[in-house]
Amino acid sequence: MTCVQCGREVSFKYRVNEDGAIFCGDDCYEACGDDAHTDRHHPYIDVYEYVRREYIHWMEDWEDRLILADKYIDEVNQMISDIDALISEHMDFYLSDGDDGVFHAEIRKYLHKLNQLEKTIIQWRPERDVYYQVAVIFRRQSPVQLRDMHETGVRHLKEEIRTRTGRAEHVLIEWLDLSFAVPEFWLLQDNTIELTYETRAEAEEVRDHFQALFADDMAEIMVDDVFSCDSGCGLFLPDTMAECASEGWHYESICAQTDYPGIFAQDELASLVAKDVDDVPFLIDVWFVGKIKRSCIMHDMDYPAWVALAEL
């Protein structure tokens, strides 16, 4: 489509007048003063202006909101709720045939495009930075031997990182101090020290320190490529240990159980949607409800009635 005023190809920011003429944006539209003046008296003009403005805002900002989010799934769920609210506010236009003039048809088109945008938002995945994790896994020695090896390794590492600067290193030293304050700490961590670095060279240097300190029969020492958990919990884990990797998410198992990333398969969703309100627990986890809504959108199914009750 091209603008009737300047002849340029139009983008998603285009607008129309009541006669169906297409403009690339507000500037070219306003340049046609007579058309703009006539449109201001149209019964649908206020709704058209509002829905068009909201659509442009979403098209410009949706990906930045996700990229900057502290917790991706929370942001996706909130964005779905916001778009749902906008569509619900104008449901009569959404359900119509768009046959009551140009503005009526455009309003309906924007609302359906926003519905499609919900699917794009659900399918979005972050671009993740690769980190490098040194894992020191102590062999199953006697408790005294294991504790001594752990304390020796931690002490050696603390001496090495004291030469570095920055908040991360100070936090790490505090973490290592905690390992001595809690007697069973080394057992709770599965006899493993895990330290994460931004560069492979740095991780391999630390690995070499540990390899010089412990014989092969005392500890297994390795460097893995890892990614941060998409929940924002701060944990790092390799792809082989991530939950929901098949759906493009990267989750630690406990976080996956609480955040409900991804969507339900269609058969499973149909079973959940068919439940009566009385069969659904009174307090439904908001993240579970978020997964239900995302799944319904992707499978083109209506939300079950109990979703609205769960969100009260």
What are the key terms here?
two-stranded antiparallel ribbon; 6 strands; 312 residues
Characterization of the model:
The chain is α+β, with helices and mostly antiparallel strands and 312 residues long. The chain is built from 14 helices and 6 strands. The protein has helices at 26-31, 33-39, 45-67, 72-89, 91-95, 102-123, 143-161, 167-181, 185-188, 200-213, 253-259, 266-273, 286-298, 305-310; strands spanning 15-16, 22-23, 131-138, 192-197, 219-228, 236-237.
Coarse morphology = elongated
Number of DSSP helical runs? 14
The average pLDDT score comes to: 82
- How is the main sheet built? 4 strands, antiparallel
Kindly report how far apart the N and C termini lie. 44 Å
What portion of residues is helical? 40-55%
**What spatial order of strands do you see in the largest sheet?**
4-3-5-6
User: Regarding quaternary structure, how should these chains be classified?
Assistant: single chain
Strand content: 5-15%
Q: What series of H and E elements makes up the topology?
A: EEHHHHHHEHHHEHEEHHHH
User: What is the rounded Rg?
Assistant: 28 Å
Structural class: alpha+beta
Poorly predicted regions are 164-188
Number of strands: 6
